[in-house]
Amino acid sequence: MNFLAHFFLSGKDDHLMVGNFLGDYLNNAQVSQLPPAVQKGVALHRAIDSYTDQHPEVLKGVRRMYDRHSKYAPVIIDVFYDYFLALNWSTYSEQPLSDFILDAYACLKRHHHLMPEPVHTYVPKMIADNWLETYATHNGIAYTFRRMSHRVSRPELLAGALDTMVSHFQELNTEFNAFFPDAIRHAKAFVKQVAPPQ
């Protein structure tokens, strides 16, 4: 899953949220320099990713789009699932999405000093361009894939990703809503059971 879902699955814990955000950007040596509670957030991020990659509902969507998007199918699903979380937000949270997003940005600002380059540089752009809210719109999803296309080795495989989502909208929405309650339970169990590194 992408940023919005990872933030949501961190609950209201600042340390988990910032660690969860940093999970894809740090090597193990960098992680070991973080406060233990933030390290737990990184571990949560990786546990969520591992669980997501193996979930049968997620794999349905990945298989459906593999012919068109090949190795980027799982990455595309991650972005789609942020869209579907925004779409179904009131099912999973009593807090308005706009308020949640402001809280997430405030958390990133409070912990900006923990972030290495280039993350330290692009977080202000992320906030200024309101990436989290753009996931709730088709234009925002298209913008996300355009941004990603500059960082991947085969950008042509991202072409038409939004069309893929529109074409399989109902199936993807159904699969997301079958998967996400399981992801919530998994994240809560991880947080409860795993102590921060010492």
What descriptors fit this protein?
single chain, 198 residues, globular
What does this structure look like?
By secondary structure, the protein is an all-alpha fold. The protein has one domain (3-193). It contains 13 helices and no strands. Helix 4 packs antiparallel against helix 13 (169-193) and helix 6 (73-87) runs antiparallel to helix 11. The longest helix is centred in the last third of the chain and has 25 residues, at 169-193. It is globular, with a radius of gyration of 16 Å.
What's a quick, concise take on this entry?
It is built from 13 helices and no strands. It has 198 residues and is mainly α. The protein has one domain.
Question: SSE layout and pairings?
Answer:
Blueprint (H helix, E strand, L loop, with lengths): L2 H6 L5 H9 L5 H4 L4 H19 L1 H14 L3 H15 L1 H4 L4 H14 L8 H10 L2 H4 L3 H12 L11 H7 L1 H25 L5
Helix pairs in contact: 2-4, 4-13, 5-6, 5-13, 6-11, 6-13
